[in-house]
Amino acid sequence: xGRITLDKVSKRFGDVEVIPPLDLTxxxxxxTVFVGPSGCGKSTLLRLIAGLEDTTSGQIRxxxxxxxxxxxxxxxxxxxxxxxxLYPHMSVRKNxxxxxxxxxxxxxxxxxxxxxxxxxxxxxxxxxRRPGQLSxxxxxxxxxxxxxxxxxxxxxxxxxxxxxxxxxxVGMRLEISELHERLKTTMIYVTHDQVEAMTMAxxxxxxxxxxxxxxxxxxxxxxxxxxxFVAGFIGSPKMNFIxxxxxxxxxxxxxxxxxxxxxxxxxxxxxxxxxxxxxxxxSDTFFHxxxxxxxxxxxxxxxxxxxxxxxxxxxxxxxxxxxxxFDENGLRIA
Amino acid sequence: xxxxxxxSAARLMMAPAVVxxxxxxxxxxxxTLYFSFKKYLPLRGGDLGWVGFDNxxxxxxxxxxxxxxxxxxxxxxxxxxxxxxxxxxxxxxLNQPMWGxxxxxxxxxxxxFVMPTVSALVWKNMFMDPVNGLFAHLWKFFGAQPVxxxxxxxxxxxxxxxxxxxxxxxTLILLTAIQSLxxxxxxxxxxxxxxxxxxFAYITLPHLSRxxxxxxxxxxxxxxxxxxxxxxxTQGSFGTRTLTYLIYQRVLESQNVGLGSAGGVYAIxxxxxxxxFLMRIVGKNLDA
Lengths: 334, 288
Known about the structure:
heterodimer; A: 334 residues; alpha+beta; Rossmann fold; CATH 2.40.50.140; 2 domains; five-stranded antiparallel β-sheet; 27% helix; B: 288 residues; mainly alpha; MetI-like fold; two-stranded antiparallel sheet; 3% strand
């Protein structure tokens, strides 16, 4: 009921190949996140699946049926847009009813589904308002409600949280995750925020320039990034990369070590450097260390109580077993 | 800008413009009211004294009054329907990406820059002339009897000429409105299963409602006063005598300023009645 297969799908706009042929399978009920820097083709890929763009070549199958040339409405997918795309002249109730009205669902069934969706999304009090009278988070929920009532075989989310403020984003992230737990429907979620990807996904697809860099569970990507790009993209703050002699000691062109895998002390450790900026978050402290002779800056995560200041000389100890090794092409050395 | 001093300075500087505007409006209005209560025949004795509401009664009871009101409403209504319907269609068409878009848009807007007198003469002599007109040639080509447009279908001809002049205005306003429609809304509707026709009815048209309101209101103001198109084509004959034209005839052809002034006051009342109806029907679109 929602297995989506892309078979050598590619997309060109004129002479520009935005997505070179790629293969991908999204299993039924899976929460898949497409993540990558802006302009990497993740939204285009989603629009190809939705049917809003035509594929240049290749085949899209939904539940083993060829859907490559099926119009968007007939694919049984529902989409939540970045701008929410609510119909401004209709009340919330009419917005949610719109896809059912188009599909000719009987009135009382429409009413039942609207009630259910409004209950699930805390929208019952707002059903007769217009989208313009709602807050960002409420509009977001209306957009999700409009998607739910279609009872689609998969949901497509196009950066749905990017217009919300930080606090709301965390809340909506939880709500969408809960929704997935409850409905068990396939969801494809596009974002450029790796935190959203890590927290929500069953499976993350990392894209760069239209190419899939790696597919895997959040922890697979965190522990065993296939190349330098994935290693740098997943994890916050970014992984430190060190080239040259220090990398040579490990038999690699480049080594990578995450900020949370480096221990800090005043006088013990193989690496030394000067603190340039320290960011105190309360729970953690991030040190940006210069003058190490290894890389321009090394970022280190320490306990919130560690209190080095600007200019202090400190010593760093990487955890040897958690060092990632890459060859000159940026690929992981096992 | 909020100190007492700057506020009074602002009032002082605005005063000349406000006084000028008030004068410009009040002087003609008061003169019209003044003459409407007088028997005033410039070539037949001049000012012949006060006559009370005589002129008002005579103007309404004249056999030409009600037909002229109906002709006015027919022309205004006809032009509004044609310009809004075709304006929406043209705006949608022009919004599609196409080759030479800039030039096509300028060409579409061009008729609006032609003076009413000129365009009416062009239509009368080059298109609608029963002997040499383009339409006459077209009819003859198909073996039909050429239509004498301005006498056999006079009101329709005037509506056609005026619509041609005002279509660019409607198209322009509606095109800018269409361009501000969020494409994600159309895509969302597409995914929701709405056919192109339903997308137009449920998304595009409601989005355009405010622009349509603006077009209807502005055009109505100007269309109630059309004159040149009638003057150079039918001279008010064949049922094309509008209220404006009737007033012109009373004042200049019959040389009866008092009677014409009374007609002018009726025209003001008619314009206000139409305005109130329009505001009732479409004005709520302008809120929020």
